[in-house]
Write a structure and sequence with these properties.
heterodimer; A: 388 residues; alpha+beta; nine-stranded mixed sheet; eight-stranded mixed sheet; B: mainly alpha; two-stranded antiparallel sheet; 3 strands; globular
């Protein structure tokens, strides 16, 4: 097949939620954009997650980035299955011990529901759960979200090249010039690196170190559950889930406690369209090894039963893994230009929250490219914070 | 033509996940329009077909035939759907105790 030679204003690398949102928002503003993806759409972290879309646990400014979802389906003219699903955080005695140890117990104890009232909120919880807290949340179908973005991008004149592998990025005099792929070359003014867990490899092509590594997760999917269960629409999170990415450091692999070593913390989400439960989760630094680790699966299963004992008889029909793009320096995202390489933009490091942060993150990146300023602050996600 | 399309909404292709023919056809067209080279897998992800208890043992061939209808790609030339463990459904309790896999525990 003849190789293509294209000229565009922006080349987006990565067909996950971050890259697709960037491409869509650029195309919407009339910018020439080409998105290249090595595999299929949503074949990285975007396609292998719990489909939870609650309030971000990321500190401000990203805490409200999920608001963009409210009108997204209408805007994209596609049903992305954004469905309200309250979130409850569950506190086990072990969690509370750990919270006291790291000094965050005080912040949470006042917001917590305890005693008899726990059963009113979620009757299926294990007897020894000490407290629960509630927040708002949503389910969203990650594949439909991506296809919605992709379809709209094409409708607005953007191009998408799947199965196109970036080999080289040519930079001269400190300015990005050309993206060389196995299918052809793209002469471009901007490159957006939205390659998720693989974004450090793209960074290497322009001579920078992006401190993002794959943080592997396992997910178990159950058979469709009983539709009559009135509490099935709640997303159940073991509280520790939220802070795991921050205290999981590479040295944790040597811990004797499987919960620490494998980063196990239960979440039980529910797909309101198909009625399957989605169970997780784990956090492992394991390179790009996609294989299902039986030990991790066993501990996730054990731990989900520990939170909701009656799940023990439900059948698991599918198990898979995925790689969160995790910034090992501080666990925070990177949405930023790069000093010294004009036209190179990084949009990655979203950890376990790419699905929540991606749509707004992509929009803000498009603003950064078009207007050189953003409607919401992104300074906290600057690449220059790694200088030291 | 319109009547026929409505009828497709009544024909279940994937029994496990209750996905009808119209939904499958829409997903095939969408994946093809983006340039997918593994349409069957994308249809699976978009519609949840082949993801129920039987894991596609029943509906996969029907979907392959529809992909041929829409794109001209013969079933034998279509890339396979991703296969995930377990081969057969297993309940969570059994999974929590299973030790037939080589244990990696220290």
């Amino acid at each position: 097949m003849a190789k293509f030679r294209e000229v565009t204003e922006v080349t987006v690398i990565g067909g996950g939620v971050v890259g697709l949102s960037t491409a869509y928002h650029l195309a919407k503003e009339g910018v020439d954009v080409i998105l290249v993806e090595r595999n299929e759409l949503a074949s990285g972290a975007t396609g292998s997650n719990s489909a939870m879309c609650g309030e971000s646990s990321a500190p401000e400014p990203a805490g409200r980035w999920h608001k963009i979802f409210e009108n997204l389906g209408t805007e994209l003219r596609y049903n992305i299955e954004y469905i309200e699903s309250p979130v409850i955080f569950v506190y086990t005695p072990e969690n509370i011990k750990e919270m006291k140890k790291i000094g965050i117990w005080e912040d949470f104890s006042s917001k917590m529901v305890i005693g008899e009232k726990i059963k009113e909120i979620e009757p299926r919880l294990a007897e020894d759960i000490i407290g629960v807290s509630q927040t708002s949340g949503h389910f969203v179908n990650p594949f439909k979200l991506c296809y919605g973005f992709a379809q709209a991008t094409k409708r607005l004149g953007g191009k998408i090249h799947l199965h196109t592998n970036v080999k080289e990025i040519k930079v001269s005099n400190g300015v990005v010039r050309t993206v060389v792929t196995d299918k052809g070359e793209i002469k471009t003014d901007f490159v957006v690196n939205a390659a998720g867990a693989w974004s450090s490899l793209i960074g290497n092509m322009v001579g920078i170190d992006i401190p993002v590594v794959p943080l592997k997760g396992h997910i178990l999917v159950t058979e469709p559950a009983q539709k009559t269960d009135p509490f099935h629409l709640q997303i159940i999170n073991e509280f520790m889930y939220n802070i795991y990415p921050y205290n999981q450091r590479p040295e944790a692999v040597n811990s004797n406690d499987p919960r620490i070593r494998l980063g196990i913390a239960a979440y039980i989400t529910y797909d309101p369209v198909t009625n399957n439960y989605i169970l997780g989760g784990s956090h492992e630094f394991n390179g790009y090894d996609r294989q299902v680790n039986p030990d991790t699966v066993r501990h996730i299963a054990k731990h989900c039963i520990r939170i909701i004992p009656q799940l023990r008889k439900i059948n698991i029909i599918r198990i898979f893994t995925g790689f969160r793009p995790y910034c090992y320096v501080d666990g925070e995202s990177i949405f930023s230009k790069v000093e010294g390489i004009e036209g190179f933009i990084i949009a990655t490091g979203t950890g376990g929250e790419g699905l929540i942060l991606g749509p707004m993150g992509g929009k803000l990146i498009s603003e950064l490219i078009i207007r050189d300023k953003t409607s919401l602050p992104i300074d906290a996600y600057s690449f220059s914070r790694f200088k030291n | 033509m319109k009547e026929e399309k409505n009828k497709e909404g009544d024909i279940i292709v994937c029994r496990c996940m209750e996905v009808n023919k119209r939904e499958i056809r829409a997903a095939i067209r969408l994946a093809a329009s983006i340039g997918s080279l593994s349409i069957k897998d994308q249809v699976k992800k978009l519609t949840s077909s082949c993801m129920g208890l039987c894991q596609g043992r029943t509906c996969q061939q029907l979907i392959e035939r529809m992909i041929t209808e829409e794109t001209g790609i013969k079933p034998s030339d279509q890339s396979p759907i991703s296969i995930r463990p377990p081969t057969y459904p297993i309940n969570l309790e059994a999974l929590s105790m299973v030790r037939i896999w080589p244990s990696l525990e220290k």
